[in-house]
Specification:
Order of helices and strands: HHHHHHHHHHEEHHHHHH
Radius of gyration: 20 Å
Structural class: mainly alpha
CATH architecture: Alpha/alpha barrel
Strand content: under 5%
Strand order of the largest sheet: 1-2
CATH class: Mainly Alpha
Oligomer: single chain
CATH topology: Glycosyltransferase
Helix content: 40-55%
Shape: globular
Length: about 400
């Protein structure tokens, strides 16, 4: 056991983690990522100051989409942390500052008279990122929605209704973007188009291929879209349905069980060094790869096989591997294309600087308060640390329908 303990320490504890607890590391990395976007948009200067790096121009200039991409994705990830509200702790006061920035940013994003009024209906891409913004309101209603002035709420509703005009979208995970926008209307506006929700849920039930995995349309894709989009949006949409009498609310148990199996698979992807297989589309979404693990921790719904201590330890190790290499951020603090630093050739043609802020979706566990057991429990080795250190207690991985 001594040998296992020594190997575990060498693998999971970087030098700076002896003086900083895991939560401090997470808060620092999230706020460092968020600050340029929120400050610029709050000051009505996002379009003026945000750089727009693109992998290529095969799909044309993406700059008209970059603002909503960055803001919507960032808000979907930071929302649970903001939902904790302001407190008298140092972190709580830090949150208060970011909640204020978020309110100002929301107002400018949806105000047609603001310089930073964002694109909600030109091209197809706005549907994607309007859905992430809608997801942010679902994840933090008490801090991001209810306190907004009535006029700002009206502008948010008008902006999100604009995306209903976007048609002929890809026949895959994109169905969930429309469903998530409608889930916002179910919860906050009461004038939802339930057909969009039903279509997305029913199709994904058809596209389930087993063992926690959904095909992305007709075919399964070997990538991380089950974590980037599919499981998290299925969970959020079906959770909203619990507030209604809609018959598809009964899918909640099945959707959660499948997400839990996928979380087990994700956790096993994390090597002792905190790396994981880089395969398929959108690898440059970085920490967003592990959204499902972080979301289930937030919902206190991790599978029995995964302890909070091992998930926190594994995700912290991954976060440091992803966010601390030189070149991850430019000199002004904006994210740059890449997985480990600046690697612009790793971007698909649909990727630009705004796209990269999907990394924030890995931070959902910060919505658990500072004294929650996810943060206070002892660090534990994750599955691959146990296996490669020779731990004889490791059990077989079991397929689930």
């Amino acid at each position: 056991m001594k040998q296992i303990a020594i190997i575990f320490i060498l693998f999971i504890i970087p030098l700076n983690m002896f003086t900083q607890n895991n939560r401090t590391v997470w808060v620092n990395e999230l706020t460092k990522t968020a600050k340029p976007v929120l400050e610029a948009l709050a000051n009505d200067e996002l379009k003026e100051t945000m750089p727009v790096e693109q992998g290529s121009f095969e799909y044309g200039d993406r700059s008209s989409f970059a603002g909503l991409e960055a803001f919507g994705r960032l808000m979907a990830g930071i929302a649970p942390w903001l939902e904790l509200g302001s407190t008298h702790t140092k972190e709580g006061q830090f949150r208060k500052e970011y909640i204020t920035l978020a309110h100002k940013a929301i107002s400018n994003a949806v105000n047609p008279n603001a310089k930073d009024y964002l694109n909600f209906d030109k091209g197809k891409q706005p549907l994607v990122d309007a859905a992430f913004l809608a997801q942010a309101f679902l994840r933090a209603p008490n801090q991001l929605w209810y306190p907004l002035p009535t006029e700002t709420k009206k502008m948010v509703v008008n902006a999100l209704k604009k995306v209903r005009s976007i048609n002929n979208v890809p026949y895959n995970n994109w169905l969930l973007f429309a469903a998530t926008v409608e889930a916002f209307f179910v919860k906050f506006d009461k004038e939802a188009d339930f057909l969009r929700i039903e279509y997305a849920l029913n199709k994904h039930m058809e596209w389930y291929v087993g063992d926690g995995l959904y095909a992305d349309g007709k075919y399964y894709h070997w990538d991380y879209y089950n974590s980037f989009v599919i499981h998290p949006m299925l969970i959020d949409v079906v959770n909203v349905l619990q507030e209604s009498n809609h018959p598809l609310k009964k899918l909640k148990g099945k959707i959660l069980e499948r997400a839990q199996r996928y979380a087990e698979i994700l956790e096993r992807q994390i090597s002792p060094e905190g790396t994981y297989p880089i395969v398929g589309r959108s690898a440059i979404y970085r920490f967003g790869t592990f959204q499902v693990l972080s979301q289930l921790a937030l919902l206190e719904a991790l599978p029995e096989e995964l302890s909070e201590g091992q998930v926190r330890s594994a995700l912290t190790k991954v976060l440091l591997r992803l966010h601390q290499p030189e070149g991850t951020f430019n000199e002004q603090g904006w994210l740059q294309i890449g997985v480990a630093g600046h690697q612009p050739k790793m971007a698909e043609p649909y990727i630009c600087t705004g796209s990269l802020y999907l990394t924030s979706l890995g931070f959902l566990s910060l919505g658990l308060p500072e004294n929650h057991s996810f943060w206070t429990s002892k660090p534990e080795p994750w599955t691959m640390v146990k296996i490669w250190s020779g731990d004889s207690s490791v059990k077989i991985d079991t397929y689930k329908n």
